Amino acid sequence: MPRRGNGCGTLAWGRRMSEAIFRTQGVTKVYDTGSTQVHALAGVDLELYAGELVVLLGPSGSGKSTLLNILGGLDHASAGRVWFRDLELTALGDRGLTKYRRDHVGFVFQFYNLVASLTARENVQLVTDVARNPMRPEEALERVGLSKRMDHFPAEMSGGEQQRVAIARAIAKRPEVLLCDEPTGALDSQTGVQVLDALRTINDELGTTTAVITHNAAIRKMAHRVIWFRDGRIDRVEENDTRIAPAEIHW
Prior knowledge:
By secondary structure, the protein is α/β, with parallel strands linked by helices. Helix content is 26%, strand content 27%. It has a single domain, classed as P-loop containing nucleotide triphosphate hydrolases (Rossmann fold). It has helices at residues 64-71, 94-104, 120-128, 137-143, 159-171, 189-206; strands spanning 20-32, 37-49, 53-57, 79-84, 87-88, 105-108, 177-181, 209-214, 225-230, 233-239. Strands 6-7-8-3-9-10 form a 6-stranded mixed β-sheet, with helices on both faces. The longest helix has 18 residues, at 189-206. The two termini are 24 Å apart. InterPro entries: AAA+_ATPase, ABC_transporter-like_ATP-bd, ABC_transporter-like_CS, MacB-like_ATP-bd, P-loop_NTPase.
């Protein structure tokens, strides 16, 4: 039986990682719209472990994207505390968060945000030019299966290929964490599987801690753990004793 709880404790999956790369304590997020307040997160306690692939699952408005933005240093919690290893993110100012994002986190979003006038190689090079210890752009693109598309422009590529360029760009700086917000949301199932396969390969081969946000429950079967969100809270946590390959996922 999968363990159910608040996401803390020893993992049951193969590598049994014990190191928490992220910890949150009582994290809340309130958006003030002027006429009302929206409680996006309502006291989240969570641990994410080094080297795991975790899926954050839930309906729109459940708080999963808000939490991802806070973990990635793109947004601030209204209350509570967040740590990346021993670094307390909630104690950092804007400059500190910018350095944290630059040095430790790769982002993949639903829409690819590629520069249309640049080739795949040049889009990835935008990151490698400023990273501390980057891969070569060619290596990053090879890792997502695009060795033959490096000199193509976004308009010459399919949606799945563009998303894999975005993944290559995200991993090119060798981040410890890859945060993915609906990476298959704009793709059909066949193309989405190619993107999921790239993410799983990166997790398996590089050991990059990978968090994938989705409302697509089928994707949960490829993860080490699944964290279900509802109404700004963690509803339950499940561990997959047996993961399936992305090619076996159907939706």
